[in-house]
Amino acid sequence: MLAVGAPAPRYNAKETIMRSKRMTGGLEKAPHRSLLQAMGMTREEMDRPLIGVCNAFNEVIPGHVHLRQLTQAVKDGVRANGGTPMEFPAIGVCDGLAMNHEGMRFSLPSREIIADSIEIMATAHPFDALVCVASCDKIIPGMLMAMLRLNIPALLVSGGPMLAGRFQKKGADLITVFEAVGRVKAGTLDQDGLAEMEACACPTCGSCAGMFTANTMNCLAEGMGLALPGNGTIPAVLAARTRLAKTAGMQVMELLKKDLKPRDIVTEKSAKNAVALDMALGGSTNTVLHLPAVFREAGLTADLALFDATSKKTPNLCKLSPAGHHHIEDLDAAGGIQAVLSELLRGGFVDGSAMTGTGKTVAENLKDLKVRVLDADVIRPLDKPYSAEGGIAILFGNIAPQGCVVKQAAVAPEMMQRTGTARPFDSEEDAVAAILGGKIQKGDVVVIRYEGPRGGPGMREMLTPTSAIAGMGLGSDVALITDGRFSGGTRGAAIGHVSPEAASGGLIGLVQEGDQIRIDIPARSLELLVDAAELDKRKAAWKPKEKPISSPFLRRYASRVSSAAQGAVLEG
After folding, report:
1. Mutual angle of helices 139-150 and 107-124, in 10-degree steps
2. How far apart are CA 295 and CA 307, in angstroms?
3. Are residues 364 and 436 in the same domain?
4. By percentage, how much of the chain surpasses pLDDT 90?
């Protein structure tokens, strides 16, 4: 459950002198001022609050190629309200481009690098406040972690979602293309159709168009109050996104004046609000990794029990891709995250007294914005939800005594309870070869192990195998279980984060070909149907596989990373 146990704060919350004066004030800082003047900064600019603006722009990620414009808008806002912006970069990994090869091992670990690097920059150069600009999967949680760790006035600005594409008169997005690979193998789509789909599925810049990990985290950042209203859903290409960025630059100066810091905003109340919002939205399973890591920086502990307890009592109000046919642009047109919060507040599922980055509470924001639901199909009313439970379920059993996660909102009804035949593989590559090679049959349960945080290392996303299963028409007949993780775009009976993982001695490593596995999502159960005596025999003869790790960075990561059940955070 959610518990409070904050470490000693790094910085004094009662500082009356600007942090930046550590770098610019007094006789002994004359050399420092000289260096700032070398960049063209005037003494007047030095005397103003210095605002760090972290820009994750790069020419690699579609969600980031437009961030120069938005970062400039942030800086314009800072200057308009009396501050001096100082821009610096952050790295970012595109999970789509890193998928199904060695690069994906570096995606989740990049979250820690991003958080650490922002801490380094904002401590080595003591900014008075911080605005972080990014769009995509691990960059957003890494930035949120840094904001809470530093605990100086701060806001997050998302680059916004891309618009959905159109293919053969239907909505399309990146997941449509991933699943199309299976369709080609199954013979239901030809190469020309695939090429046409490739060209139209991702029509604009921005984070991928569905309720995948990037957009889920941007929505939850808004929900927990570290981003302004509109952050989660305004499309990347709209002028409203630029205005939001400019407003954030102005607003961070107001937070500085009020001395309102991230840990004043992310409290037990707002953390619980974020989890409830996650369940209502049917967000990515990766939130079960990222939210605990973020809350940990605020001195809050969120375990898997919190997610499941919240899911059991929070209705699923939205079904966006991959769970349904709507996209983030539809959610925005329906009223956005604030409209979802208004429904949840009406039902008592969120706490309206939680503080936000506007300087006002959740309830005050909703009143000021005169929020209402504009499309009752995109955002269902409380009395007509898509389902009575939230989008994510946490399962336990002998395979996962510490827990595992499934996006139940994207599971076919006939797969909610199923007993199937185990088909174990020791890598993603081996599993994909079997799926696309037609070796997986209806009723099988694909088991992919040694892909956890430690055993991978890096806990790769299994989007390629889950998409292949769906694309080959097996989504209602084949389940997949892994100690790895999934893309927010995964749909079907895909159960991930199995803990403990195989590399740590988890029972998933003992599964053999032909074993029976029982999945019961309503009962929150995942069981390997092998008697205890046989399992004891297998364990006595078994030694977890140790993969050779060529990367010095990944060796360090594997030696320090916690289990997925604890958010895959670095320990020590």
Report:
1. 30
2. 13
3. no
4. 96
The answer to whether residue 376 sits within a structural domain is no
Q: What is the 3-state secondary structure (H, E, C) of 78-98?
A: HHHCCCEEEEEECCCCCHHHH
pLDDT value, residue 3: 53
Beta strands at 403-406 and 84-89: parallel, antiparallel or unpaired: unpaired
Nearest to 145 by CA among 172, 168, 177, 112: 112
Do the Cβ atoms of 54 and 92 come closer than 8 Å? Answer: no
Catalytic residue set: 487
**Mean pLDDT of the region 467-495:** 94
pLDDT at 373: 97
Same domain for 557 and 447:
yes
Give the structural domain span for 10: 3-163+204-369
SS (H, E, C) 382-429: CCCCCECCCCCEEEECCCCCCEEEECHHHCCHHHCEEEEEEEEECCHH
pTM (two decimals): 0.95
> What's the CATH code of the domain at 553?
3.50.30.80
- What is the average pLDDT value for the chain, to the nearest integer? 95
Count CA atoms closer than 13 A to 149's CA, side-chain side.
20
33-50 pLDDT, tens per residue?
999 999 999 999 999 999
Q: What is the rounded distance in angstroms from the CA atom of residue 344 to the CA atom of residue 121?
A: 38
C-beta separation of 51 from 253 below 8 A: yes
Please tell me whether residues 329 and 402 are part of one structural domain: no
CA 542 → CA 343, 484, 508, 509, 545, distances in Å?
Answer: 52, 21, 12, 9, 9
Contacts of 536 (CB under 8 A, 6+ apart): none
**pLDDT tens-place string over residues 326-380:** 999 999 999 999 999 999 999 999 999 999 999 999 999 999 999 999 999 999 9
For the segment 410-457, what is each residue's pLDDT rounded down to a tens digit? 999 999 999 999 999 999 999 999 999 999 999 999 999 999 999 999
- The tokens for 29 are 């800082």
Q: Nearest Cα to 225, choosing from 428, 361, 35? A: 361
Identify whether 374 is part of a domain: no
DSSP state, 237? T
Say yes or no: 327 and 464 in one domain. no
- Residues in contact with 557: Cβ distance below 8 Å, sequence separation at least 6, in sequence order: 109, 112, 457, 458, 570
Contact status, residue 449 vs residue 511, Cβ threshold 8 Å: yes
Residues 42 and 118 in one domain: yes
Asked whether residue 265 falls in the same domain as residue 410, the answer is no
Evaluate whether residue 61 is within a structural domain: yes
Count of domains observed in the chain: 2
285 neighbors 322 (Cβ within 8 angstroms): no
Residue tagged 């605002």 (tokens): 51
Residue 136 tokens read as 């995509």
Q: Which residues of 397-424 are buried (b: 16+ CB within 10 A; e: fewer)?
A: bbbbebbbbbbbbbbeeebbebebebbb
